[in-house]
Amino acid sequence: MTSENGPDPAGLSIFDDADEAAERPAAKPRRRRGRRVLLITLVALLLVVGGCTGTVYWTAEHYASSVARIPGAFPTVAESAQPKPVPNSGQTFLLVGLDARTDPTAKAKAPVWKAGAARSDTMMLLHVSADRKSASLVSLARDTWVDVPGHGKAKLNAAYAYGGPALMVQTIQDLTGVRIDHLAVIDWNGFRSLTDAVGGVDITIPQTIEGKGEARQWDAGTHHMDGATALLYVRERYGLPGGDLDRTRRQQYFLRALMQQTLESGTLGNPGKLRGLLGAVGEVVSVDDRLSNGDLYELAWSLRGLRGDGVRFLNAPFGGFGDEGGQSVVYLDRRAAEPLWEAMRNDRMAEYLAEHPGSGELGDVVR
C-alpha cells in the first residue's frame, strides 16, 4: 500500500486531534475509553466480543480460525541474504491491499495469488513497538521504481504479480533492510464490507476536487461514505494533483476514519454489530501461516493499552516523479529514507518522529 503525509479525513487516515483529546479532563469516559482501545489492524478486534458475551475462548478461536492463512508467504533465499532480525525490536507487518478489480457486487474474499492475476495496489509497513505503546504505519507508493529480484527494475506493485507474497516480501526487505515478521493481504473490495459493517465512515475533504475523465468530482466538506463510495475514494488517483501519492494519503486517511468509527460507533460494545464486523474480517483478510491463532490472541491482548495518539501514519520519503520506458513512476528518496528504515529496524520510531516533526501527521495534504 505508498508515500507521504497528510491530514486525517475521517477514517483510517482520519483522527480528530488525538493530542488535544489526551489533554482533556476525564469528564467523558466514553471518549476516553475509545482512545485506549487497540490499534485496529483487523486482528486486534478478536477478543472484544468474547469479553462482552462471556465466551472469550470460543469466540476468539472461532474468528481467528476464520482468517485464511497464506502458505509460502516468505522468501526462501538464504538467511544471510535477508535482513537480520533485531531482538526485542517489536514486530513489523507488511500490509498488502490488492486491486483485483473483481465484480463490485460480488462478496469480497482475499484471493489466492495467481501469477499475473493482480498487482498489489497498496503496500504499508506497520511497525508495532516492543512495549506495544505505539505503532507506525508507513506507506510505499505502488509506482515506486525498485529492483525486483529476478526481474530487474520495475514498479513495486509488479512484484506481487510476478511472484506473489514471497517476492513482494523479498522486494520490500531488499529495499528497506527491514525484516518483515508477518503479512496480511486484503482485496480493497474487502474494505467495502468492513466499512458497511461499522455503519459507514465520515471523510472530510478539505477542498473540491474536480472530476477528470472517469474520476468523479468530490465536493469540499464532510461526507458519510458507505462501503461502495469509500472504495471509489481510496482507489481513485487520476483526478488527484499528486496522483499515486495523493491516493496513498487518502488510503491512510480512510484507514484512520474506519478505526475512529469502529471505536466511537458502539460497534465494539455491541455483540451483534461486532460479530458482523469480525465476520467481515474473516471473509476478506488473509495472513501468513506463521501467524497462529495464539499469536493473534497475544497480539490483540498486548495492544490493549495502545491509544489513538500512539498511532502514526507516514509516507516513505518522496524523491520525485519520473518516466521509465513510457511508465510514470515514483522515486524513493533513499538518503532521506535510510533514517526511517534504521528507526524501524531498531524500534526507535518515537525518536525518528521527534527528530522529524510533522512526518507522522496527515496535516492538510489529503485531497
Outline the secondary-structure elements.
Blueprint: E1 12-13, H1 18-23, H2 29-36, H3 48-53, H4 56-65, E2 68-70, E3 91-98, E4 120-128, E5 135-140, E6 145-148, E7 152-155, H5 158-176, E8 182-187, H6 188-197, E9 201-205, E10 221-225, H7 227-235, H8 244-264, H9 271-284, E11 285-288, H10 293-302, E12 311-315, E13 318-324, E14 327-332, H11 334-345, H12 349-355
Task: Describe this entry's structure for a reader.
The structure is a single chain. This protein is an alpha/beta fold and 367 residues long. The chain has a domain of 247 residues: Aminopeptidase, CATH 3.40.630.190. Helix content is 36%, strand content 20%. It has twelve helices and 14 strands. A seven-stranded mixed β-sheet has the order 2-11-8-3-4-5-12, with helices on both faces. A hairpin with a 6-residue loop joins strand 4 and strand 5. The longest helix is centred in the last third of the chain and has 21 residues.
